[in-house]
Amino acid sequence: MNLSDHLPAFLVMIPLLGAFLTPLAASFGKTVRSVFFVLFMSLILLTGISICASTFGGNILVYVMGAENFSLTLPSGMSYPVRILFEIDAAGALMILCVAIAAFAGALFSVAYMDRFSGWKRFMALYFLLSAGALGMCATGDLFNFFVFVEVSSIASFGLVAFWRDKPEAIEAGFKYMLVSQIAAMLLLIAIGTLYGKYNAVNMGALSSMMRYGTLERIVLAILISVLAFKCGAFPIHTWMPDAYAETPSGVTCLLVTVSQASFYGLIRVCFSLFPGIAGGGMVAWILIVLGCMSMFFGVLMAVVQHEIKRLMGYHSISQVGYMLLAMGVGLLALGNGEKMAEYGLTAMKGGLFHVMNYSFYKALLFLCAGALYYATGTRDLDKMGGLARNMPWTAGMFVIAASAISGLPPFNGFMSKWMIYESSFAVHPILPAVAMITSVLTLASFAKVFQAAFLGPAKADFVAVREVPAFMLAGMAVLTVMTLLLTLFPGWFTGNLFEKAAEALLNQRGYIDAVLGGM
């Protein structure tokens, strides 16, 4: 048996096995528990890298779990095939890589960060489940299985957002997150059930091949866009995001960033692979563009006035999601307006996917830096910090790199992806890059405030004895710093080998359909 043929299965089996074995591993003490946690997350990372490498040449991985001829027969006599189908092209592999790297970095960080607290068994099991849910969302080629993985990630998130259950704020954030997630899940299930009722299929490739665009399909598309846009934190159903990100342990927030990106991946897969005949029109594209601009602008405005560091970064997450929605909306609009605009559409898609990876790394790094500050000082209030660069030089240095990247300062990777979005959106309407640039300026002002308040100025008397955080926490932050610097130093390589191939995979609806129908 060639193990490489089963990489898609390992992608979710490893974290699920980790969650199952967590109580046993934790019973052997701190050292075994930590080694077990890092080892399993390392295996997930290696699997994600291997899958990404397998799609470099334009390959589409199709993997079916469940015997081809095995069916579940109900008492009524109706029979249903029992199988889980994964379909991973370059776009899915890109998202898997982002999730795997962020999950690994968050795990390294959490080994030391969570050592002060009880509940390690619960934490590890939920962390594994959250990883499995996010990876499954990016790997599945089946709408119902996508719903299942959304629920797996949501259930794990509920427990992790409310992990500090002695804090009323954490319970409130967990309840708000649960309410929004369950409403979204019910609407998602209604949309999937509607398609199944009409086409007797939930596989995305099969549905694409049979799709007939009518009123019912347009209603389903509207539901799917609404649910997935709001699940990734778009305005106006964005209020869960700052609360959830603020109260979750920082290593988990690092992973939650990519969970929201898994929802964004579901959104672009629906638009480009499932409903391109409708989504390629002007209305859907402009809805995404408007949602993107509103998310960018209102997110950054709310961030500027915050004094609690993780809430500030939570609002910036809303703003960053706006760039991706803008890019995908511009891509849909430009690609649907003839050959003259097609080049701008492809540039927008590459820029949007570039920004997805950038955001997954520099935003996760910023949350880890915020966690390091809280670990060292015991506060998240910027007004109570000051002068910490002297005592925490590594944290300060990595914060500067991440803050420069998210603010779009040249030559950092954030500037590269934003420039591609500016260029393509200007071809649609000059007001769009203006909104994006204003957002970047306000982002820079916001993070300049954070750096000045936390790291510069005189040291507060309570924090004179503060020291740099433990090595495992620095290691988790260093992984994301290295990835941010690699994207900064080699943008051409990443664009040619990852982002361009991912954009082309999204446009290749025929290839997606043929691969999955042939794989079944």
In short:
The protein is mainly alpha-helical and about 525 residues long. It contains 20 helices and four strands.
Total number of beta strands: 4
Helix content: over 70%
Largest sheet: 2 strands, antiparallel
Overall geometry: globular
Through-space gap between termini = 20 Å
Kindly describe this structure.
The chain is globular, with a radius of gyration of 22 Å. The chain is mainly α. A hairpin with a 5-residue loop joins strand 2 and strand 3. It has a two-stranded antiparallel sheet. A two-stranded antiparallel sheet has the order 2-3. The protein starts with 6 loop residues before the first helix and ends with a helix. The protein has 20 helices and 4 strands. The longest helix is centred in the C-terminal third of the chain and has 39 residues, at 339-377. Helix 8 runs antiparallel to helix 10 and helix 14 (339-377) runs antiparallel to helix 16. The chain folds into 2 domains: 1-276, no CATH class; 280-489.
